[in-house]
Specification:
single chain; alpha/beta; globular
Length: 493
């Protein structure tokens, strides 16, 4: 029997079983416009540190890096590390003021920490000197606000904004026999769920252990995973918030108790495959593309894998994408949808030479430029740009793209404070105790509030000078920065 680590390794091998090939620079590289370009950095080397923790980042590397090498004549030395090792490597590099990596992936949980220890470059001067084809105003506003900025400083170019979506099995939902059986049992048509109650009902309908089929699956395998899935689908869409304006934790509320009770209820867990208590990224993704579940609540980074026809239940003929369900307001009938906004971006090492910084920026502005991002999106169905989400030709090929823009407007950013990683683990650990029935839901959320308060207090955030920036306040901060850049974002006032 596979251990969890063996299964995760096997899953990742399946995810990324693409043979990497090196591609030497062409004699006369050509830009996306067809014009010949100079190669001022030809023969130089660029070291890139990435974490292919989610499929989209691996696909980007394999698609974009050879194109940059051909375009520029630069040789990329690439290293992929597990997400859990990323911050440690970068922290060690920064402490030594080393030039080990030129460009590296950051996520919104570590950007603040890295900036505080002098690891990242202010990207504004580089963009002003040479914007290339990269347009910061094309990044969704909340994505830029939460993932590119630390305070009023631009430290990263977002390459992946994780936005909540629901994938479902078209072959099941569109099967006339399934539709007839569902209508006979519940008196309503079988269609993608609009609410979480419908999601549970459909999940129960498709739970058939004797056929090796279950309704859906979630990540309960470690504290952070459980916390994320609770937030992605349930807590935020119910209207919950983690902190008030003064960093007082406010999870132990009716919204928190109702959403967590739903997420770990016996009937909800019964619609999931055996072993769900140990699931992490790899297991839930593989269950969907291996035809073991009817629905999979996920985020936009997983779409290239879901649409990979090499998988038994992969590809647009088998899987469709829709908005995540939400909570219906009993008074108005309005369905409230929200989700967690998290993601990654490219940063540049502050401790490298000016020439290496110039090469690093050249790499970012080329690979993240609009032309290359649209080319990538055409192939893989995702790129973190508004112009991609709203492009009619791309939407015809990838009909779920407009959903990303809709979700980018309502998703709530993660907490971007230096102490958040510690709080995230503590809160997740407390919720895990409710999942295991060692604590009641009320007790777990009360403990989560208390543990979060202890961590915030230890960080000195109750001195009257620290205030929590929710999504709207982060957006306002980003809009002020766009004004400073002299560009107009379509979602700013």
């Amino acid at each position: 029997m596979y251990t969890r680590k063996m299964f995760a390794l096997l899953s990742l091998m399946i995810l990324f079983s693409v043979i990497l090939s090196s591609c030497g620079p062409a004699a006369t590289p050509v830009a996306e416009t067809g014009e010949k370009v100079d190669k001022p950095f030809a023969g130089k080397t660029l070291t890139v540190l990435n974490t292919e923790a989610v499929p989209i980042l691996g696909y980007m590397h394999r698609y974009l890096d050879p194109k940059y090498e051909e375009y520029s004549g630069v040789k990329i030395v690439y290293e992929n590390v597990p997400h859990g090792d990323l911050f440690t490597k970068l922290q060690t590099m920064a402490a030594a003021r080393a030039d080990t990596y030129d460009v590296f992936t950051v996520d919104d949980t570590i950007s603040t920490n890295l900036d505080a220890i002098g690891a990242t470059v202010d990207l504004e001067p580089l963009w002003r000197a040479d914007p290339g084809d990269f347009k910061p105003e094309d990044i969704p506003l909340r994505t830029f606000a939460a993932q590119a900025m630390v305070g009023d400083k631009w430290v990263a170019v977002p390459n992946m904004g994780a936005l909540g979506i629901l994938s479902y099995r078209k072959d099941l939902f569109e099967d006339p026999k399934e539709q007839e059986a569902y209508k006979a049992k519940y008196g309503v048509d079988l269609k993608p769920p609009e609410t979480w109650e419908e999601y549970l009902q459909i999940g129960q309908f498709f739970t058939r252990p004797d056929e090796g089929l279950w309704g859906f699956n979630h990540r309960y395998g470690e504290p952070n995973s459980l916390l994320f899935d609770w937030i992605i689908g349930y807590f935020y869409s119910r209207g919950g918030v983690l902190f008030d304006d003064d960093f007082n934790p406010v999870m132990n509320t009716p919204e928190g108790r109702e959403s967590l009770s739903f997420f770990i209820s016996d009937e909800f867990l019964a619609a999931q495959p055996p072993g769900h208590e140990s699931y992490f990224f790899a297991e839930v993704m593989q269950n969907m593309v291996q035809c073991k579940v009817a629905m999979y609540l996920t985020e936009s980074w997983s779409v290239p894998l879901l649409m990979d026809t090499a998988n038994p239940c992969g590809g647009p003929d088998k899987i469709a994408i829709t908005k995540i369900p939400g909570w219906k307001d009993p008074a108005t009938g309005e369905i409230n949808r929200s989700s967690l906004l998290a993601g990654t971006g490219w940063s540049i090492n502050k401790n490298i030479s000016d020439e290496q910084k110039a090469i690093a920026w050249d790499y970012i502005k080329f690979t993240m430029g609009n032309a290359m991002m649209k080319s990538f999106a055409d192939e893989y169905g995702y790129a973190p740009l508004i112009s991609v989400f709203t492009d009619p030709e791309l939407a015809e090929k990838h009909p779920y793209l407009p959903l990303y823009y809709d979700m980018s407007l309502v998703a709530k950013p993660r907490v971007i404070e230096p102490w958040w990683l510690e709080a995230e683990f503590a809160i997740g650990t407390d919720l895990t105790q409710a999942f295991s029935r060692d604590l009641t839901v009320d007790e777990a959320l009360e403990k989560a509030d208390a543990d979060a308060r202890r961590i915030v207090e230890a960080a000195g955030y109750y001195d009257g000078n620290h205030h929590y920036l929710n999504a709207e306040k982060l957006e306002a901060q980003a809009c002020a920065f766009y004004d400073k850049l002299g560009v107009k974002h379509q979602d700013c006032p």
